[in-house]
Amino acid sequence: MDTFDWITTAAKSAFLVIILLQVVPIMAWVERRGSALMQNRLGPNRIGPLGLFQSIADAIKFIFKEDPIPGHVEPFYYMLAPLVSVVPAFMTFGVIPFASSINLDGRVLHFQVADLNVGLLYVFSVASLGVYGIIMAGWSSNNKYTILGSLRSSSQMISYELSMGLSVIGIILVFSTLKLGDIATQQGQLMTHLGPWLLPEWLQIPKWGVFIQPLGFLVFLVAAFAETNRLPFDLPEGESEIVAGYHLEYGSMKFAMFMMAEYLNMFTASGLITTLYFGGWQLLPGFGPLLGLLQSQFGLAGMSAEWARVGFEVLSFFLKVGFFMWFFVWVRWTLPRFRYDQLMDLGWKVMFPLAMVNILLTGTFAYYGWI
């Protein structure tokens, strides 16, 4: 790597870290206000306008709150567990592109920290490490409820990771790549036929993953809820059965790190759903004409026009991600928690067969050249 690569990588990494650090306080506020809206109550409304500063107050409380280590825990692993959960959550988003590339004096600038040719494999590999922090927290706490929570989490993640991994094989078959940037780029094409039938020009729609892999999208979406331990799949933290689950013995900043890992995993899952199934940074409907209007009104050309395009792509990407972040909150405060046997039955008897059926259908369509 030369100086240009080092500088751009450092800049992109800093931008991404800043974005990720904002996710937790913003989503904590959205979660509270959203749940209050659905339950016909106010939510936080004292600290700042609409309670916007409540998350800042919570962060200050977590930082300065006393953080004793219980006498019955295994200290080393007890301290290490929150780090093992939160570090992979920060690492995973690095390969997800949030805009198309741009040429700067003959050099190509990619708007992702690492443009790996195995980006999709990297996401699944690193994301799967987070469960070790949960298992470590449950075991090191020496508490029967925490151990039950960590065991639940390990079996749940193994079950749904299998369905999630199988669900994206259809995307790989369609786009013939593991590079997330290439997958997002190819979704800018138009669907010219549906199965063996050619589509008229007025019916052609963007080749987004959700249109060509609707079954795979459904399986991936459900598995994402299970992988992030969100309702209705939050069995590792089931208050009605195991008090607080794997983080029962944690408080102060250690508990905050587990909460941070959950929201960052939600953010990564939303970014992955956006990239694989909703065109990634491809412009939202109406943004293309708006961009053209702005370029003509302000006389943008050359690099100015390119940077305007990148700005609209970044905005489109994060609007899509923001919608799915809200969708996580929406589902949490709408659906009740499953029983554990229902969760496992859904994973092995419904999600796994559907993922296999999706591979069979996608392979058949690809063989006959229908996709």
Gyration radius (Cα, Å) is 22 Å
> What count of domains describes the coordinates?
1
Q: Which band does the percent of strand residues land in?
A: under 5%
Straight-line N-to-C gap: 38 Å
Mean pLDDT: 87
Order of helices and strands: HHHEEHHHHHEEHHHHHHH
User: Helix amount, in percent?
Assistant: 55-70%
> Biggest β-sheet, characterized?
2 strands, antiparallel
Short description:
The chain has 371 residues and is mostly helical. It is globular, with a radius of gyration of 22 Å.
Task: Describe this structure as you would to a colleague.
By secondary structure, this protein is mostly helical. The protein has one domain (3-367). 65% of the residues lie in helices and 3% in strands. It has 15 helices and four strands. Strands 1-2 form a two-stranded antiparallel sheet. The chain has a two-stranded antiparallel sheet with strand order 3-4. A hairpin with a 2-residue loop joins strand 1 (102-104) and strand 2 (107-109). The longest helix is centred in the N-terminal third of the chain and has 36 residues, at 3-38. The protein is globular. It starts with a helix and ends with a helix. The model has no long low-confidence stretch (mean pLDDT 87).
